Amino acid sequence: MAVKSQVFREFVTDMWRRSSDVHGPHRTYRLRPAGTLLPVAAFFVIVILVSSPLTGAAPALAGTAARGVPEPGTSAGIDPELRTLLSEVIAAGVPGAVVRVQDHGRVRQAAAGVADLATGAPLRPQARMRMGSITKTFVATVVLQLVEEGRLALDRPVERWLPGLLHHGDAITVRQLLNHTSGLFDYTADPGLLAGVVHNRVFDPAELVAIAETHPGAFAPGTAWAYSNTNYIVAGLLVESVTHHPLGEELRRRIFTPLRLADTSFPAVTGDLPGYYAHGYVPPDLVPTADGRPFDVTGLNPSHAWAAGAIVSNAQDVSHFYRSLLGGELLSARMLRQMTTTIVEDPTDPAFRYGLGIERVQDRCGVNWGHSGAVFGYETMAFWNEDTARTVVLASTIHPAPAAATAVLATAADHALCGI
């Protein structure tokens, strides 16, 4: 399917021009010391594909109240302040937002806004969304399981299992892929990717690596840290090389099925979202629409994201995944120690450290482990606090978020993690 409007093409090109020099880590609800947050600058800057034009009358978003839906056997609700914050997020121009807070046997969850602007159907907390780079924690978990089984080794070169894939595969280790110290160029920063994306082309993962390999590395392997989506494309190919199975099959067999993540999937080459899902949007100031509403980008083809960001899930499943992972259900104690052995991302800001597919963030309520994700149409975060055992998942259905919404989203994330 080709892009349906010249305006849309111009938008993608403009976003590419403005974002192509951003190679650092993406941030959605980036936790900061004292609970402040930074919105994402760019993630997959060229991932936008059109599902269908928006039609119908726009609902009155500002008047959409947050809706709490308790699970059986759990306490009913989100506290009034967080509920108010969710409503303020909607008033600021976000079509829909979901929050889930779980600790000490209690689950509190709520949704605000709509699942689909075209129909005005209210959003429910169970909605599936694109999770972006939260995918990386899932993929890293599979890699570490394979290390435990003796089929991969963290400190052996990638060349051993993927001969000829990387120019310097004999110098880049599996560990360096997972903790972003490989120096590999981030393929999403290559403008040549744009043409294929806007025409909804299905990319083979090896093509994405080949795109990255046309550029010099950012630094010698192991000498610095820089977030690169290429690392996880290579990690996904490692999984396939040693198991002789598709990555999606290994994710399903090793994580989705054992944890009973019924709403989690890896639709790597189709833009169709399964089950009950929330539509994702970009703001009208970036893609002008006749009626001034956000532009629906739900039906993108995620093959360009693959192991770096193609998982679809919901708040309940993501919360259960992180609680199970950090509770030792998916990895041995030895492998979990490897995953949570971190390096500083920015020496000037030591509160932020990266492990193997997981981030460690120190804020006002202690140490948090998790990841954020962003893909046009969706922003997500999921973190588990090691002091309180609280897990928070917060997701919204527009990316980039309107400027008026970013501060409210930050406050909501902080309040969910530390304030209730």
Rounded average pLDDT: 83
Report the top-level CATH class: Alpha Beta
Number of helices: 11
- Taken together, the total number of domains comes to 1
CATH superfamily: DD-peptidase/beta-lactamase superfamily
Briefly note the structural class of the backbone. alpha+beta
Which overall shape is indicated by the principal axes computed on the Cα atoms? globular
Q: What percentage of the residues does DSSP assign to strands (E)? A: 15-25%
Residue windows where pLDDT falls under 50 for at least 5 positions = 1-76
Please tell me the CATH architecture by its name: 3-Layer(aba) Sandwich
Describe this entry's structure for a reader.
The protein has eleven helices and 16 strands. Helix 2 packs antiparallel against helix 11. A hairpin with a 4-residue loop joins strand 5 and strand 6. Strands 3, 4, 5, 6, 11, 12, 13, 14, 15 and 16 form a ten-stranded antiparallel β-sheet that branches. Strands 1-2 form a two-stranded antiparallel sheet. A two-stranded antiparallel ribbon has the order 7-10. With about 425 residues, the chain is α+β, with helices and mostly antiparallel strands. About 30% of the residues lie in helices and about 15% in strands. It has a single domain, classed as Beta-lactamase (3-Layer(aba) Sandwich), CATH 3.40.710.
Quick overview:
With 420 residues, the chain is an alpha+beta fold. The protein has helices spanning 6-19, 80-91, 135-148, 174-178, 193-198, 205-212, 230-243, 247-256, 315-326, 333-339, 403-418, and strands spanning 30-31, 37-38, 67-68, 96-103, 106-116, 121-122, 129-130, 281-282, 295-296, 312-313, 343-344, 352-354, 359-363, 366-375, 378-385, 391-396. Strands 3, 4, 5, 6, 11, 12, 13, 14, 15 and 16 form a ten-stranded antiparallel beta sheet that branches. Strands 1-2 form a two-stranded antiparallel sheet. It has a two-stranded antiparallel ribbon with strand order 7-10.
